[in-house]
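Weekly structure sync, notes
Attendees: PL (lead), two postdocs, one rotation student
Agenda item 3: pending single-chain targets
PL asked that the sequence for the first pending target be pasted directly into the notes so everyone works from the same version. It is reproduced below exactly as submitted, 301 residues in total.
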Amino acid sequence: MGAQDADSILHSRSSVCDGYSNLFLALCEAAPRFEGHEEIYAFKISGLARGVNLEAGDTVTDLNGHAWNSVYVNGEYRFIESTWAAGSAEGNSFKKLFLPIPYFLAAPELFIYTHIPSKGDSQQYLPEPLTHQEWLQLPHTGPAYRINGMRLLSATGLKPTSHNMLSFIETDDDYMELRIELSANLDVSTGGCRIIGHICPGVSGPPMILYPNAVARLPNAPHSDQLKASPSVPTSAMMFHWDEVLDDRNKRIAVFRGYLPRGESVIRVMAQMSSDSEHCYQAIQFRVCNHGSGRRHPPPG
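Predicted structure, written out during the meeting:
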């Protein structure tokens, strides 16, 4: 990849995250030069993001593997993720998919699930910033989580961090239940939402790719490190139903129930991101350890 400064990116029309964030920053800095545009307070942040190279609960991390932006608007900080909003990597190719809703002016309390600065807790813009250890224990949320206005209400065995945010899951009776709130005004732009849940025994659905030349190992993880992905992942579907709309807030609740095998699994909830597409994308993913017998878990298939 060539130079990543803003001028080079405009000429080459090709970039990685460093170039995206440099270009966004340059555009914000140029705004006051044009009539009718006020000054935009924008910043570039380097750190770690949960993309295709990181699973929920992993302890091997590249602490400077990504870059994004923040802006100060209307008295508060919000995040801009230009790289992810432009599309996604699929193998060795890039698929264009413009997704402004999850990544434009993202709130700090949602953005923290996928991004953490490598230095400076102040750039999290949270009342109580997380350590990297706490951040790695959070569930892994994807764009379908934000675009459908999701919020995790409860999960069997869920353990909060000292900041009352979500962590890894442990259970001892084979049973797993998730309750996820969705906004009926947001889910797939009011076109409805197809949502599914999977239990993946011992492996994760998305492929795992590591960059061993720039990693840091965090000790004392609550789970064993590096569950390896498989090209064809055996899964068991979770039972699913909708609860009634709660109240005038126009919320829906999706309830998932399932039985776990003994040992470690990955729980994935997938959802549509477009009402005109049948494809489901990751909404939220957990690393789970079941200390029970696992006898109630059906064979994968």
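Discussion points:
- The chain is about 15% helix and 35% strand.
- The two ends are 42 Å apart (CA to CA).
Action: rotation student to compare against the earlier draft before next sync.
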